[in-house]
Amino acid sequence: MNASTSSSVRKVSLRPVHEADLPLLIQLAGGTEWRSEFESGRMSGEQSVKKRFAEDGFCSDASERLLVCDESGAVIGSVSHFLAHCYSTAREIGWSIHDPALRGRGYGTAAARALVDYLFENFESVHRICCNTDPANTASRRIAEKAGLQYEGLLRGVIFVRGAYIDGAVYGILRPDWQAQRAQAV
Ligand SMILES: CC(C)(COP(=O)(O)OP(=O)(O)OC[C@H]1O[C@@H](n2cnc3c(N)ncnc32)[C@H](O)[C@@H]1OP(=O)(O)O)[C@@H](O)C(=O)NCCC(=O)NCCS
């Protein structure tokens, strides 16, 4: 999977990872500086970042990471999608605006919308997109809603953060929902 798209809201764009991005990804993977309380404490480190880039450039049928760029083209965040279930084409999505100083300005919403559009526009087989977030992560829940996903319920004990298994708030959007939202928007 690989392509790029943009959101009309905040004018972010999504692009694949380039070799020149590796120092940033290594910094993100190994550091706690920009890591929020809602993200896994799991560190991946330099070697695993380099290995993944060498293997597939962070892009395979199973999962893909794309970088979020602002209006000037600067990398400000990451989004990802991966196979949600082995029996389905559903994709699970996630997002992050790296620097906390850039959060709360609409970039996360724009990135989530761009990711949903990217998946439905580029991959015909995708019928459902979902996300799973810490119920206390208000910003992430709002982003899901503003990207057109609807709340579906709680999955018990599905997320491991802060040293414990917690419930996940599940949001989802189906292709017909997305098509209807598009039709309404014009
Ligand atoms: C979640 C995250 C991507 C949100 O990005 P963002 O650029 O700050 O989001 P936006 O500016 O588009 O704001 C989206 C909504 O969340 C709200 N929001 C933003 N930060 C918030 C906060 N700290 N607390 C409560 N609400 C918040 C905004 O007010 C907005 O809602 P509104 O339209 O009703 O006003 C960002 O906070 C982040 O990267 N967090 C760390 C990583 C993370 O938690 N990822 C999700 C894992 S599931």
Q: CATH H level: which superfamily?
A: Gcn5-related N-acetyltransferase (GNAT)
Query: Termini separation (Å)?
Result: 28 Å
Query: Which regions have little confidence, pLDDT < 50, spanning 5+ residues?
Result: 3-8
Mean pLDDT: 92
Ligand inventory reads:
coenzyme A
Structural class: alpha+beta
Number of domains: 1
Structure annotation, total helices:
5
Question: How would you sum up the major sheet?
Answer: 7 strands, mixed
Task: Please trace the helix and strand order, writing H or E for each element.
Answer: EHHEEEHEHEEH
* Rg of Cα set: 16 Å
What is the strand arrangement across the widest sheet?
1-2-3-4-5-7-6
Number of strands: 7
β content, as a range? 25-35%
Second rung of CATH, namely the architecture: 3-Layer(aba) Sandwich
CATH class: Alpha Beta
> Helicity range of the residues?
25-40%
Task: Kindly report the CATH topology.
Answer: Aminopeptidase
Shape: globular
Q: Mind sketching the topology for me?
A:
Blueprint: E1 13-15, H1 22-30, H2 45-56, E2 63-69, E3 75-83, E4 91-97, H3 107-122, E5 128-133, H4 138-146, E6 150-161, E7 164-174, H5 175-185
Parallel strand pairs: 4-5
Antiparallel strand pairs: 1-2, 2-3, 3-4, 5-7, 6-7
Helix pairs in contact: 1-2, 3-4
Bound molecules: coenzyme A.
What does this structure look like?
This protein is of the alpha+beta class. It has a single domain, classed as Gcn5-related N-acetyltransferase (GNAT) (Aminopeptidase, 3-Layer(aba) Sandwich). It is built from five helices and seven strands; from the N terminus they run E-H-H-E-E-E-H-E-H-E-E-H. The chain has a seven-stranded mixed β-sheet with strand order 1-2-3-4-5-7-6. Strand 6 and strand 7 form a beta hairpin. The longest helix has 16 residues. The radius of gyration is 16 Å and the shape is globular. The structure holds coenzyme A.
